[in-house]
Amino acid sequence: MENISPTRMNLLQRRSQIILALQGVELLKRKRDALVSNFFEVARKASRSRQELEELSRQAHLSLAFSKAYGKPENIRVAEISSERDILSEIETKNIWGVRVPEIKTPHLKREPWERDWNPAFQNFHLLKASEEFERLMERIISLANDEIKIERLGQEIKKTTRRVNALEQVVVPRIRSEIAFIKAALEEREREDTFRLKRLKKKRQG
């Protein structure tokens, strides 16, 4: 406290600072609560997506196994080659309570049988089903990737906001309160000394 000048101006400044600090704590807590709410909402969605992804992957591989068992190898090879394609994606940025989150945007990957580069009339049912399921699987993978990115970014921001709240509550606010108490005590002591000196001067004059 040696570097603090115990003046009324400094006392007013510290009182303004503590008001701002407490307002900052309240705003940061509201932000953190909103982030936590978004975090758990996305986490629940991602959890459901993982379960759906596992089931869809199981079904797709099962359909592929059936297509290989009942289909001709040359037809399956034609379907594999002709199904190769470039997927154009865009990265958009969303803002969630000040957190910038990238999101992968792709067109619908699932195609109708006639939209593929092979004749569905010459393919067995299981191969058609496997193709549809693997396209849906890719859509779910991209969707889950977006959720995973959101979870990571929101989690990082929650930790950062919590650190700021703790710094304000446990360091900044106590320090300012301590400085206010020091300045008030010094001013009160100074007032007592001034009052004592005035009384002595009054007595001298009266004597």
Features:
207 residues; Helix Hairpins; 75% helix; mainly alpha; rod-shaped; two-stranded antiparallel ribbon
Q: In a nutshell, what does this entry contain?
A:
The protein has 207 residues and is mainly alpha-helical. 75% of the residues lie in helices and 7% in strands.
What's the overall average pLDDT, rounded? Answer: 84
Distance between the termini: 41 Å
What profile does the largest beta sheet have?
Answer: 2 strands, antiparallel
Number of helices: 3
Domain module count: 1
What's the CATH topology name? Helix Hairpins
- Describe the strand arrangement of the main beta sheet, using strand numbers: 1-2
Briefly note the structural class of the backbone. Answer: mainly alpha
What is the CATH architecture annotation?
A: Orthogonal Bundle
Helices and strands, in N-to-C order?
Answer: HHEEH
CATH class: Mainly Alpha
Low-confidence stretches: none
Radius of gyration: 35 Å
Helix content: over 70%
Number of strands: 2
Gross morphology is rod-shaped
Strand content: 5-15%
List the helices and strands and how they pair.
Blueprint: H1 8-70, H2 73-82, E1 90-96, E2 99-105, H3 125-206
Antiparallel strand pairs: 1-2
Structural features, described:
It is a single chain. With 207 residues, this protein is mainly α. The chain has a single domain, classed as Helix Hairpins, CATH 1.10.287.3240. Strands 1-2 form a two-stranded antiparallel ribbon. Helix 1 packs antiparallel against helix 3. The protein starts with 7 loop residues before the first helix and ends with a helix. The mean pLDDT is 84.
